[in-house]
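Researcher: Let's do a round of design. I'm pasting the structure tokens now; please hold your answer until I've finished.
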């Protein structure tokens, strides 16, 4: 037997960094937890993800059909399905939302003759895409507001310079997954059209907006000239996105998709997972949204009853099945408390990352999916009481932020 076969030539592994150790610890706690508010596919093992796709795929597409090649077959089936759900003429599959939105807005810029895109300061392209609109697509962005809400119609009307497109992120994730009211949204669209601007919805999480708006997806999408949706954020797919809108726009977008390197040889795993998400998760999202409101209220009451000097649920009630929790403690303390609770009790109340927002002030995001539907108000309060008991045992009380 060779040295390689016996492992004698293997080099010792580099010691893990503190960040990597924490990541592994959080992952182990999540996998081992018996109670969570959400089971997110992206945090499952490869074996679990493949097994889930193998189970779901036969119910969403004929697996005896030829595999896709450069966007045909199951990918085209997914595009037709998305267009039907959103009520648009056509849709195009993209490997990422970053690519889909760059393409959409550069296509609109060519039509309007104005490469300026008006958006929120917290919009995804402004915060998370390394200035891709400017550096790659040749677009220019202007910020309508930085407030933790959608812009107002008056802010659009009063903006000091022209813009070719208004981009609205629905919901606005970094502001707390917030949405405007239906009346406010229609006024935003009207205000943009008064300025001869097209309207594009960054609808990465648009799927769960129907409860808040009280409207079906097709009616929501009909307000915009184009819409982008994601397949992994709410539908628990492997990845990918779609751009939906008029047929001529979508056909042009497919040309740019090729130019951007998005004409991938085969994409059937992502397409099948997206179809499965449309079948399985999309019909359940309204239940998740409604129960998130129950969970949020129980968290608020639980913190007050447990002696936390100050807490905030934002927005209250939640607009979607995701919302923010703010507490007056440092992020590393909250992260450690959440981990110890998971490791010692099997309940992982806050498996997300805690973000330091200021001295002694931190925020995390809470998601409620199928696993969370089992939690009663009493369950949430009990978990909060245990969490806070651990927290207060090791940290001094602080005053509420101003």
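Researcher: That's everything. Go ahead.
Model: Designed sequence:
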């Amino acid at each position: 037997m060779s040295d390689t076969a016996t492992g004698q030539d293997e080099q010792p592994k580099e010691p893990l960094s503190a960040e990597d150790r924490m990541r592994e610890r959080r992952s182990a706690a999540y996998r081992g937890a018996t109670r969570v508010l959400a089971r997110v596919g992206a945090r499952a093992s490869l074996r679990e993800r493949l097994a889930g796709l193998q189970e779901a795929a036969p119910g969403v597409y004929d697996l005896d059909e030829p595999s896709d090649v450069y966007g045909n077959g199951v990918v085209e089936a997914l595009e037709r399905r998305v267009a039907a759900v959103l009520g648009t003429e056509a849709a195009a599959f993209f490997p990422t939302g970053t690519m889909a939105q760059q393409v959409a807005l550069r296509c609109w810029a060519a039509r309007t003759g104005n490469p300026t895109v008006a958006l929120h300061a917290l919009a995804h392209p402004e915060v998370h895409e390394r200035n891709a609109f400017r550096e790659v697509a040749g677009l220019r962005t202007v910020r309508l507001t930085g407030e933790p809400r959608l812009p107002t119609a008056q802010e659009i009307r009063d903006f000091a310079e022209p813009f070719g497109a208004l981009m609205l992120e629905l919901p606005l994730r970094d502001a707390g997954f917030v949405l405007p009211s239906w009346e406010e949204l229609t006024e935003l669209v009207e205000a943009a059209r008064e300025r001869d601007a097209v309207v594009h919805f960054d609808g990465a999480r648009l799927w769960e907006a129907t409860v808040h708006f009280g409207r079906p997806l097709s009616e929501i999408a009909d307000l915009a000239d184009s819409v982008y949706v994601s397949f992994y954020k709410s539908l628990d797919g492997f990845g990918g996105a779609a751009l939906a809108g008029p047929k001529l726009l979508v056909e042009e977008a497919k040309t740019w998709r090729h130019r951007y390197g998005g004409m991938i040889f085969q994409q059937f795993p992502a397409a099948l997972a997206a179809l499965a998400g449309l079948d399985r998760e999309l019909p359940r999202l309204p239940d998740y949204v409604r129960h998130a409101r129950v969970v949020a209220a129980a968290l608020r009451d639980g913190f007050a009853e447990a002696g936390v000097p100050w807490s905030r649920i934002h927005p209250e009630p939640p607009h979607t099945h995701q919302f923010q929790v703010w507490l007056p403690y440092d992020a590393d303390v909250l992260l450690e408390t959440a981990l110890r609770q998971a490791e010692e009790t099997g309940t992982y109340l806050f498996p997300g990352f805690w973000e330091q927002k200021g001295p002694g002030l931190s925020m995390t995001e809470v998601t409620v999916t199928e696993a969370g539907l089992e939690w009663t108000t009493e369950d949430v309060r009990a978990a909060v009481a245990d969490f806070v008991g651990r927290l207060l045992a090791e940290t001094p009380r602080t005053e509420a932020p101003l």
